[in-house]
Amino acid sequence: xxxxxxxxxxxxxxxxxxxxxxxxxxxxxxxxxxxxxxxxxxxxxxxxxxxxxxxxxxxxxxxxxxxxxxxxxxxxxxxxxx
Length: 82
Description:
The chain is α+β, with helices and mostly antiparallel strands.
């Protein structure tokens, strides 16, 4: 069966996010108020062939751990849809 693995990758909370800081400063410069913090990450979509959702999540998690995510600097979450 084919599943969609949605992967959200974000910088670790302990690390400075220069891109997020630049966007936060720019928003304030545009007069957009109320923004407390900006963190910028990425979204990855994988189409996975697997027997069940659990297997699809395991395949996507393995891909993240081996290639897609720099685990020293980033965290990730995987969700599976049909």
